[in-house]
Amino acid sequence: MGIIQPVMIVALVVLGCFNLCYGGEEFSEELLLRPLPDRKVLAHFHFESTTPPTKDYGHHHHLFPKAIYQLVHKFRIRELELSFTQGRWNYERWGGYDPISSSNAKPPGVELWAIFDVPLDQQSSGSIRYGALPREAVCTENLTPWLKLLPCRDKSGLASILDRPAIYRAFYHSQRLRITSNEFGSEGIEPGIDLEQTLTIVVQPDDQRTSTSYSSGKMLQPDWSISSIFGRKISGTCVLARSSSVFFELESTLVSELNKLGVDNAASDGDQVYPGVELSVAPDQVIKERKSSSVLFEFSVKKHDYKPLDIGVKWKYPIVWSCVQAPFQANRFLMGSGNERGSIAISLKATDHQRIIVGDEFRDKCEMRVVIFQVVPWYVKIYFHTVQVFLDGRLEHTPAVIEKIQVSPSEDRVSPGVMEIALRLPCSTVSAVITVNFDKGFLHIDEYPPDANQGYDIPSAVVRFPDIQASTYYLGDNSSRNSPILSKFQENNPVLSYTEVLLVPLATPDFSMPYNVITITCTLLEKLLSSPDFVQVVQQVERKITGAI
Amino acid sequence: MATADANAGVPSSQPSNPKPRPIVRIGTFLISHSALFSLICCAAGILALFLLPVLAKNTYVSENALMPGSANPMFSNHDTMEANRLVKDIMDLKLSSGIAGIEISNLLGKYMRERDADVYHHNFHVQKNQFHLGNFFSDSSYSWHMKENRSCSQYGINTVAIIRAPRGDGKEAIVLVSPYNSTNIRLSDALSLGLSYSIFSLLSRVNWLAKDIIWLAADSQYGEYASVAAWLKDYHNPSFLDSDKSDDCTCPESNALLSSKGQPNTGGSRFNVFRHAGTLAAALVFKVVDGKEETKDTLSIYAEASNGQMPNLDLINIVNYLAVHRQGLHVKVAKLYSVLNSAWLRTVGQIFEFIGKTAKIVNPQWGFGISAADYVEGTATLASSIYYQALGIPTGSHGAFRDYQIDAITLEMSPRFSLYNEVRRLDFLLRGGRLLEGVIRSVNNLLEKFHQSFFLYLLSAPSKFVSVGIYMIAFMLLIIPLPMVAASLYSGPNKRESSARTNNENPDTAAAIVTSSGSKSWKWLHAAKVVFVVHLWAGLVSLIPYLINQLPERTPTACMLVWVLLSFVSLIILYWIAGSPYSYKISHQSPNMEWAILKAVMISVASIGLGLMSIINYATAQIGAIFMVPMCLLAHPLKHAGNAGKLRVLSLTTSNMVLAVIGFPPAALLLVKGWLEGFDGVSFGDFWIWAETLWTWNSATYLYLVLIQLPCWVLCMHILLHP
């Protein structure tokens, strides 16, 4: 014990020195917690590592993962995003308008896109690549290498509360890795490589009070704390982290509901941050959003170093609210039956929040742009000329609605088909449906994957609203706060949502049939050939024997 | 060495006479003895049919992923209380209101929303299918009846709820259907709703779901099939045009009620949005009936869909396994009860039992015998299985799913005690709930769609089946004589002629025969023309009902009369245009040869027809072959029967007459109906009603009867009446 303590102190000093001496590299860890309307909780981990550009800083890094650095340099990556997701993000209940749902809600399975820094003379094939594996099962073997990229792994800091059963029991979890590098471009404000690792999970807290139902039919939100969700408390920061904080967010719609409650129940206790909500730990800072009235409570982990941080929430009154949705809710489904042909339909339904976003006065005049991006495997042969657009139950003349359509037809066994449609819809549209017909292709016997009878996946389509930005601006001095997660939220990113993965049943042969045919043929051959063979062999043997005699 | 020499010597001894190949020799041998062989084949075919119950195998779960019953059921007494709560609420509603349909739908919606499910009300119009050209086998999405007038009187509301599987990818879904009659809700309907709800609420809590669950509470006031089919149509082939959709403003009453019950802050429109949940993997239709069984709570399984299509046998297997081995239910499949008491079937059973026992004495390892009672049971079940497949009409709303290649069955539970017995009811609900949970969990385990087990089979008991490999033997044996006899008939007249040539030395006749044998190869053309004209006529007959359907104020008898009349007239007109079938004989002296060739062509066309039908619906072809094959083989002109023995002539004439009557589809139907229900209730219009149901359900049996059986019968009549 006597030896260990000085060693630890030395280690701490050395580690602390990294922070001070190698100030060029930075790492920060943050966690955002948010209650969701359907009695679930969203936990969003955000880890960010940055390194200065090579020309100033050299090739040797102390914090930044070497693997990522080498990857970026080998393939000249400008931007790369890789996500592993299990479960579906429920855009209707968990929202589709805020930065988290726009940039962290991902399609089931694996999705990868990258922009490469391609020299001008090679740019014929484009510099962006997109791929999706909807069938990929995601489990701990994907999480472990992801955690290895963190300087403290999951030994200390916020990542230490990542209890595997808690994560994989969640309704939705998505681990994401995003690399942005400015190593090769001459322009750029912040040169260097930026590695952003996020883990978004939606969990249902265990609730002892399920039976408590109020007379109005509203259910009380479950009380939860970090330890009740993850089974662990935050026991300190990762010493290498520049900042380490936990945020608790109340959405704007929830805040307005809570304020209404506050009017009804004027008497409020001192503990309550808002009428009806009680936090077990007093926040270090309260940050308000500029546009809407959403509120962030910040807890700095460093300040709670002396005892484990366990933020908990208690609800006093039942409360019903709904998240802000994207202007249109996108769904996709298959039409038709049989093994020959079918069609894909993408339906856009106007949500209640469309009015809020667009505003009533512009509703009649304005137009909204919607971009649908869809990759289709080659064995689903899309007929691009059959694109039909229905607006509010009328078949529209396509050029009137479609602003731009970009198509790259599939090539059998070589490349998938890509379709990008930009629609220009009147804001008053209630429902829009885009259909496109396809023929189902035949595969060679050796092209069938294992479990061929399951059907074939069509990866999610991406629906983008380029006119609408999912960004939040926080009041107060942002630069002094210096929180990567908040600055990420303030970036201008268009609202984005993914549709469902589709399963297309294709004609599948009976794989055991060739085997049966071979068996029968071999049996018949054996019966036909064995008797002459037998006669010959026996005769020869007999002849030899008689000859010997 | 000596043997080899001898072998080599054999062919060299007769080099001048090359023998035909063995297969040709066998062929000529069979054709020359066709009468004997066809008798043997037909007898063997009928025997094989009666042997089917003996040859039935025990079912087994073929797909390993299903793993039925491997998990402990989570459905508990608490869930049965949930079910009871809904049952009470529904029964209370019934007393209070006249617009129970909408009330129940709203109540179900409220309960479903409590479970965090996606809920919507699916409004549909009921359309009565009528006969239409080109509607057969066509995709219902291109239906012609979209333009029909709709009224609020034919309006139904399905209530649908979807549980999204937590962590699932939402690519597949399992459908649970509980039909209920919204205008006259009974306790049994309420119980099936209640039980489905408790299952649904259990499934919304479990963490093992991989597929989404859709609960369809189908408003079956216009028939169970109609509501489910309407929902499936909107699921697979929705129309996005307003003009095709149900015009909401025509039915303000239902909409107002539906929206008023919606949540105040969202408005009602949200609950009318049709929602999807991926590819449908399997469907279970669940019903409770107040049956009062004798010994045990009973589960009846209905599986037959349109045109004899069956769901994958594995689906029946897991239901049967869970019901018998886990829940201790008595499982039934449909039987023909009239067969059960027949004495001669019992005798046949006893003969098979005796043979089985004797075989066992000879060799103890031969264990194919079954007891006579089992045999009769098996035959009754098998007969009903064949009957419903042959009819081509689905036995329940599961048939609607099969049209979209979705495996589905109907489970009908009936308790031992009255449903009003509250204590027993809970136990009954517990068993039903655990059964449903087990089946859904099994299907949920599936990674691929159902494909491992059989699709073509007949059930002879809930746990016994006859696969296609066995029951096709009977059909094949029945159909083999047809081409054989056709060939022998075709070659027969030539032989007769050549023999006539040798007997008759008169040079004039010989010369005439030489000229006629010169055109011999074209003789079949006339026969083929007759056959073609009759089949053309049959095609016309099959289309006549479309015209009749346009008539106003029609009764079945009148329709039937018009149909027969028009058919007759069209036949005469066709003969007038194309020439009478008997016109050809004037130019020839050999009437014998004439009818034989006509028969040969008829038989070959009939065998092609039966073969085609066996691909579309095996059971229809099987039953059809039993009628058609003897009729075709025995057809012989009544006038020319006279050169054999008297007894033979008499028997031939009688059997021909009998077959002529039962081979005519309407006559056969009326006879069967009269035999089953007494001849008082039989009317001429019955066949019309029956045919109407067949084309309403797009049954290929109608096509078979009119396009294959009817022309064959008409041609047989031609042969019988051959001058």
Automatic annotation (TrEMBL), chain A:
Question: Any coiled-coil ranges, and where?
Answer: none
Q: InterPro entries, per this entry?
A: PIG-T
Recorded protein name is GPI transamidase component PIG-T
Q: Name one GO biological process term.
A: attachment of GPI anchor to protein
Q: Does the entry feature the keyword Amino-acid biosynthesis, yes or no?
A: no
**What does the entry list under GO cellular component?**
GPI-anchor transamidase complex
Q: Does the keyword S-adenosyl-L-methionine apply?
A: no
Q: Which UniProt keywords apply?
A: Signal
Q: List the taxonomic lineage.
A: Eukaryota, Viridiplantae, Streptophyta, Embryophyta, Tracheophyta
- This protein's species is Stephania cephalantha
A Pfam match is Gpi16
Annotated signal peptide: 1-23
Automatic annotation (TrEMBL), chain B:
Q: Which UniProt keywords apply?
A: Membrane, Transmembrane, Transmembrane helix
Q: Name one GO biological process term.
A: attachment of GPI anchor to protein
GO cellular component annotations, sorted alphabetically?
A: GPI-anchor transamidase complex
Q: Which InterPro entries match?
A: Gaa1
Residue ranges annotated as transmembrane are 35-56, 468-491, 530-548, 560-584, 596-615, 650-672, 702-721
Give the PANTHER family listed for this entry: GLYCOSYLPHOSPHATIDYLINOSITOL ANCHOR ATTACHMENT 1 PROTEIN
Specify the protein name. Glycosylphosphatidylinositol anchor attachment 1 protein
Q: Source species, please?
A: Stephania cephalantha
